[in-house]
Amino acid sequence: MAASESRVARAHVARLEHVSGTGSYAGPGTLLLGKRRYEGGSEEPHDLVLPGNDLFADGTYVRGHGTHVRNGRLVSSQAGTVLTVNRLVTVRPFRSRYVPEVGDVVVGRVLQVAGKRWLVDINAVQEASLLLSAITLPLGEQRKRTYEDELNMRAFFAEGDPISAEVQEIRSDASIALHTRSNKFGALRNGVLLQVSPSLIARAKKHYVRLSLGVSAILGTNGYIWLSPHDLETAQNEDKTKKAGSRSDAPLSEERYITPLSVGPEAHLRVARARNAILLLNARSIPIDPVSISLVCEECARQGVDVKDMTRREVASRIADTVQTQLSAASHLAERPLRA
Amino acid sequence: MFAILQGPCVLRGEVGSRAVLRRSMCIRVFNLVWIHRARHIRQCRLLLRTTSASARRGPRADLPHYLLHASTILHAADASIISDRLRFALTFALGKLGATSDCGRAKGRSGGMIAELLRASEAQGLSASEQDYYVSGIRAGVRVDGRSLLDVRDLMVETGVLPSAAGSARVHFGETDVLVGVHTVIGDETEGQGHRVPRTLGEALNFQIQIPGALSRDSRDGANVAMMLQQRLEAVFNALDEKALHFEQRILVQPNRMWWQFSIQVLVLRTRGLASLLDASAAALRAALRSTQVPRLHLLPEDEDALPKILLDEKSGMSPQLLDAKLTPMTLTLCQVGGILIADPDAFEELCADAFIQVAMDKAGRVCGLFVSSNEHGIEPTSIVAAVKAAREVCVGWLESVDLILDEDLKELENLFVPRSSHTGFLHTR
């Protein structure tokens, strides 16, 4: 339930931002300060608030994070969206570090190799830890981790290595445990790591996506995004082998761990295009998903914008405006059944 | 002319004193060539004469010219006209020599190695595989943000941002955001010990550079970066001679006794990486200096020994002079990644770089400063030449487009102050 709720909240935020950006709506001021009741299950379950805004929580309520009581009224202490669960009123801030949930796909960077575990930066309040016992060994070996493995930990992941992983557990002291116990997780090679605001990436069915422009992306829920060129030929081969019935869970070959692909200028340009599109979306606080990324790329192609010009301010704002209009038109259609 | 060659390329034993790093540097370096082999090569002798003479004459010379000389010699060396020893000496002089045991100490003492600081300033480096990706992109001619090798990012300059300063500017450049304010004070010889009549613009500038601690991992990094930035800005602006600023008219209030002292505050608002920091600061400083207004003064002479009294010129006092700093330079940072030269590296490209070359260039396309630092493998002299050439195009283009806009703004500003006689409006009856 929490996941779907947050998705709605994010879509909502995006639409409101669009509205306040173009000014066709009554404007953000009226929207934020207008009298409105927040009750569990009301038809407007989320709204934007600024610090100091009255949350209109009448009767009995429980103060949650991001709120405080002033003159007997419950008041927001952060800029964000209001969430009410029964009588608990919380404000979830826009700009915050990543708040992990079990099962999230994250992209991180190894900070330190400690005894029997790696400390990984995943943009959360604390560094996450990845236990030696929570990784897949090369070639998918199934065995107990030995003392030698412990000495040899840098061979798996060294400091500075970008990795993808899943949040396995959030312990009672709020420390985060990751695992890479699947073939799709592990060290990332041959690509670039981007950092965006975690609130722009919604939890979705798929975080490993192939963008239409020939780039594969890992959209980490924590706001780290890994982009790598996606070779069209090898992809076809993979599909064939899949169809031939080989398990997708088959043990990894040694090659995939070691060999860097040789990448041509054209592939670099594709990745650069995706990167600039994502950063453009991030700068304008538009939710980042395959749809919005490809919309930006299409728009750029239509307007004849060069890849390197996508980072220019005036170009970026022009493109972001059109993309926002398109997205909000689409989200109006998409959101209605979700709310009903 | 000065070329600061830092790190391993600095001659052994001469690193300790900063004075050595300044003007005497090229003389010493080329003396080395002289000692080794110069008597065999006429061209080399020519080179030596020009460099040492220009170094004696003053801080300005045509650097690409002599560098070209150096590279022609190297080419000649390739054709085995010149002996190996000369080639060795020249490459040594221009920075291509492996690390020696002294290098470590040199780094620690000079405290200005970009690469060193970078490693400290980025809490997390790039992994080897990411570096490979960056390098392969650069080899393919496409950088990670889609630029080609010598493309630079947009430079945005805004002047007059601080109402209380005599001149101010804010510059956005890449990931860097810098605010510079210039305040004017009258300096005279009686004030304290450290004050001397300035001979160049650089000497009339007092720097105060602030880099918020949040931008670097620990406060010492910030201090080191600020120190490096200050050294380089001073060096660049010191290189300007009197003509650059109508020095006599604009800066000296009374020759040899009183002058305008400019206190300059550089506030780094945002930065990632260090390469674009100097470029942004120099651009901001230049724009701020260009828009700096110096009040017009009346001097009331008393007797010959005492300092004159200063009065603001009432008639024209409200129409201050603009500090016409057209000839001040801008800088461009280039770095070498995998043996390939790229302009204006971003924070991650910096982490992959083997060497940095920062070139300060004025509007006429002359080199006003050159800073080279490299890792232990050094840098090819030819890439210094290539860097200077690339910087020439970029900097001159920047300077022209920035000046085009600044000139208009400043003309407007001057016009604002012109009709002083009727400033009382309708009360003015005549």
UniProtKB/TrEMBL annotation, chain A:
<dbReference type="Pfam" id="PF15985">
    <property type="entry name" value="KH_6"/>
</dbReference>
<dbReference type="GO" id="GO:0000177">
    <property type="term" value="C:cytoplasmic exosome (RNase complex)"/>
</dbReference>
<dbReference type="GO" id="GO:0034475">
    <property type="term" value="P:U4 snRNA 3'-end processing"/>
</dbReference>
<dbReference type="GO" id="GO:0000176">
    <property type="term" value="C:nuclear exosome (RNase complex)"/>
</dbReference>
<dbReference type="Pfam" id="PF21266">
    <property type="entry name" value="S1_RRP4"/>
</dbReference>
<dbReference type="InterPro" id="IPR026699">
    <property type="entry name" value="Exosome_RNA_bind1/RRP40/RRP4"/>
</dbReference>
<feature type="domain" description="S1 motif">
    <location>
        <begin position="101"/>
        <end position="181"/>
    </location>
</feature>
<dbReference type="InterPro" id="IPR012340">
    <property type="entry name" value="NA-bd_OB-fold"/>
</dbReference>
<dbReference type="InterPro" id="IPR036612">
    <property type="entry name" value="KH_dom_type_1_sf"/>
</dbReference>
<dbReference type="GO" id="GO:0071035">
    <property type="term" value="P:nuclear polyadenylation-dependent rRNA catabolic process"/>
</dbReference>
<comment type="similarity">
    <text>Belongs to the RRP4 family.</text>
</comment>
<dbReference type="InterPro" id="IPR025721">
    <property type="entry name" value="Exosome_cplx_N_dom"/>
</dbReference>
<dbReference type="GO" id="GO:0000467">
    <property type="term" value="P:exonucleolytic trimming to generate mature 3'-end of 5.8S rRNA from tricistronic rRNA transcript (SSU-rRNA, 5.8S rRNA, LSU-rRNA)"/>
</dbReference>
<keyword id="KW-0694">RNA-binding</keyword>
<dbReference type="GO" id="GO:0003723">
    <property type="term" value="F:RNA binding"/>
</dbReference>
<dbReference type="InterPro" id="IPR048565">
    <property type="entry name" value="S1_RRP4"/>
</dbReference>
<dbReference type="GO" id="GO:0071034">
    <property type="term" value="P:CUT catabolic process"/>
</dbReference>
<dbReference type="GO" id="GO:0071051">
    <property type="term" value="P:poly(A)-dependent snoRNA 3'-end processing"/>
</dbReference>
<dbReference type="InterPro" id="IPR004088">
    <property type="entry name" value="KH_dom_type_1"/>
</dbReference>
<dbReference type="GO" id="GO:0071038">
    <property type="term" value="P:TRAMP-dependent tRNA surveillance pathway"/>
</dbReference>
<keyword id="KW-0271">Exosome</keyword>
<dbReference type="InterPro" id="IPR003029">
    <property type="entry name" value="S1_domain"/>
</dbReference>
From TrEMBL, chain B:
<dbReference type="GO" id="GO:0004527">
    <property type="term" value="F:exonuclease activity"/>
</dbReference>
<dbReference type="Pfam" id="PF03725">
    <property type="entry name" value="RNase_PH_C"/>
</dbReference>
<dbReference type="GO" id="GO:0035925">
    <property type="term" value="F:mRNA 3'-UTR AU-rich region binding"/>
</dbReference>
<feature type="domain" description="Exoribonuclease phosphorolytic">
    <location>
        <begin position="152"/>
        <end position="295"/>
    </location>
</feature>
<dbReference type="GO" id="GO:0005730">
    <property type="term" value="C:nucleolus"/>
</dbReference>
<dbReference type="GO" id="GO:0000176">
    <property type="term" value="C:nuclear exosome (RNase complex)"/>
</dbReference>
<dbReference type="InterPro" id="IPR020568">
    <property type="entry name" value="Ribosomal_Su5_D2-typ_SF"/>
</dbReference>
<dbReference type="GO" id="GO:0034473">
    <property type="term" value="P:U1 snRNA 3'-end processing"/>
</dbReference>
<keyword id="KW-0963">Cytoplasm</keyword>
<dbReference type="InterPro" id="IPR027408">
    <property type="entry name" value="PNPase/RNase_PH_dom_sf"/>
</dbReference>
<dbReference type="InterPro" id="IPR036345">
    <property type="entry name" value="ExoRNase_PH_dom2_sf"/>
</dbReference>
<keyword id="KW-0540">Nuclease</keyword>
<protein>
    <recommendedName>
        <fullName>Ribosomal RNA-processing protein 42</fullName>
    </recommendedName>
</protein>
<dbReference type="InterPro" id="IPR015847">
    <property type="entry name" value="ExoRNase_PH_dom2"/>
</dbReference>
<keyword id="KW-0269">Exonuclease</keyword>
<feature type="domain" description="Exoribonuclease phosphorolytic">
    <location>
        <begin position="331"/>
        <end position="393"/>
    </location>
</feature>
<dbReference type="Pfam" id="PF01138">
    <property type="entry name" value="RNase_PH"/>
</dbReference>
<dbReference type="GO" id="GO:0034476">
    <property type="term" value="P:U5 snRNA 3'-end processing"/>
</dbReference>
<dbReference type="GO" id="GO:0016075">
    <property type="term" value="P:rRNA catabolic process"/>
</dbReference>
<dbReference type="GO" id="GO:0000177">
    <property type="term" value="C:cytoplasmic exosome (RNase complex)"/>
</dbReference>
<dbReference type="GO" id="GO:0071035">
    <property type="term" value="P:nuclear polyadenylation-dependent rRNA catabolic process"/>
</dbReference>
<keyword id="KW-0271">Exosome</keyword>
